[in-house]
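Note to self: user wants both folds in one dump. Writing first protein now.
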Amino acid sequence: MTISHSPLGIRGKSCSLSRMDRIFAIIFLFTAFAASAQDPSDDTRGLGGLAEVELSALSNSNLSPLGKAALSIEPTLWKHAETSNFIYHFFHGFIATPVSVEAEYYYRVIAKDLGKDTTQWEHKSHIYIFEKPADWAEFQKKASLEPWTGGIHSGDDLFIQRNPEYKFKGRTLGHEITHLVVHRFFGSGVPIWLNEGYAEYASILGYAAYQRARNYISKPASDPIAPEDFMPLEKLADAMAYPADVKEVRVFYAESEKLVRFLIKDDTQKFVEFLDAMSKGNKMETALSKAYGGRFTGVGGLENEFKIYATRDYVAK
């Protein structure tokens, strides 16, 4: 079983505005306000809320082992609903409805950015929404998750925590939706660094647009990676598991996101070609050659340029 994680409490970073930034901003303006209009006193049917259905009536009621484990926690309290691309399992409608708006938003933006047509997809993925930290902690134990995990993607399932006591929900949902879409488009062969880097990249841009749509001043910004913490690209590319040290986890996520942004900033299509090659088992050097031709003189040439980029402080204008 392949599980992708989003880091709990790790602040997102980004570096510059791109075509994807503009896509996020445009689409979000047409979708985000339905979520902010939802009043906590409303249940699932008001203000465009989700309509509850019985578990057996869902278009895809097959549950994975992790899904069954999730629903075994306070089993009598779970409710169920679905939208165009997702099935939701939740406790309260006023929490699930904003999640559904945000999930569909990320789904459309990422599919558009990667140039993928999803109109013929009939199979819907499941999103499990926990509210209480104690319930999430119990699920972490059942799923044998690292304690820093704030959400996970596993196959066609997403598991996240949305604590109603917190006004700002963070980037976990966008991060995990990105994992789901990448998994659908490119399968399970995407290397860890690339999977996490693209998920960080997409969620950072999306959450900034989310905040701006609510009249908050929010610009993508990036703290530099300290030169002494910089991870050689061969080590990053060869990683088969997450670092054991928490500090290294932070560097791993930050550097992966910066590398994705560096590769995507000039030509999204070349990045998609690179992502496709990597997902099929190509080594980084081969994928770079296929997608970027002679742009880089191998991994070493890429690292020479990227290290300057990654260790430089930046705030988007």
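First done. Writing the second protein, which came from a different request thread.
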Amino acid sequence: MIRIGVVDDEPRSLQHVLDHLRRYEAEHGLALEIRTFADGRDISAGYIPDFDIIFLDVEMEHVDGFTAAKRIREVDPEVVLVFITNMAQFAIRGYEVDALSYLLKPVPYFAFSQELNRSIERVRKRASDSIMITVDGELMRAELSGIVYFESVKHRLVAHTLTRQHSFVGTLKEMEATLAGKNFFRSNSGYLVNLRHVTGVKASSCLLVGGRELQISRPRKKAFLDALTDYVGGRSG
């Protein structure tokens, strides 16, 4: 199930996108879970990262698409953003919030379907990275993209996700080995950090999405910064 948000304050434009989505469902035999919003403030206020793809109108009455996207990116660096606009000159601003692309109104179905193909491909690639953990006696799948960091607490691990915490038996050393090559890095003896959620680095700590701040031990700082630089460079390329 692909979860899609559509944000547009023009009812006709909103319906146009919904018609394209329903046609895409029928042609590809794919189930889409679709939610609509009439303004950027409706989706960005108290945003919870439960969408795979969001189609965002740019010009809206209360909160425009770029402002809404910036608020969304503060808590969700992975959701695929596609802007829909009347003005081609707005497209370049999409890079500020790591938007996948933009579409010009009125959006023809072929261009829309091609963009949706790309978006879904990105979502599926991201979802393929997951681990199985046992929480309260039940086996559950946790997507790595949603895990901000792991914390070691008395012979147990706590997975801090974008929305909640999961405690389970394990060691940080074992988890580090399991996630080798998955862009997780130890900031100190107690934390294993998902580099995709690092928003900045201070003298002795790293800043994460949602305002979290974790200590970076002095012996690990250079290696941590090197790993973060490699990750950001690889993602940009």
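Dump finished. Worth passing along: The longest strand covers residues 147-153.
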